[in-house]
Amino acid sequence: MKRDASVFLKHILESTGIIEKYVKGHSEQDFLGSMALQMQDHLENSNSGSPEASLRY
Asked: Which of 2, 10, 29, 52 is deepest in the core (most CB within 10 A)?
């Protein structure tokens, strides 16, 4: 079954709008700091071996 590229493009546009609303009023530094904290938390939880932690992501 051939996929319609417009479906993917619509999803990208919707996602971009959500991201724009999320970062509005925040500096680039705030955004990057938030991403770094999320990545650190994810790495710590993925290394803990806890099944509950792996279900969160």
From this structure: 10
The tens place of each residue's pLDDT in the chain, 57 residues long, gives 677 889 999 999 999 998 888 888 888 888 788 878 888 888 887 776 555 555 554
Q: Are 23 and 31 in contact (CB under 8 A)?
A: yes
What are the boundaries of each domain within the chain?
Answer: 5-55
Q: What is the pTM of this model?
A: 0.45
Cα torsion 6, 11, 12, 16: sign: positive
d(Cα 16, Cα 25) in Å, to the nearest integer?
Answer: 16
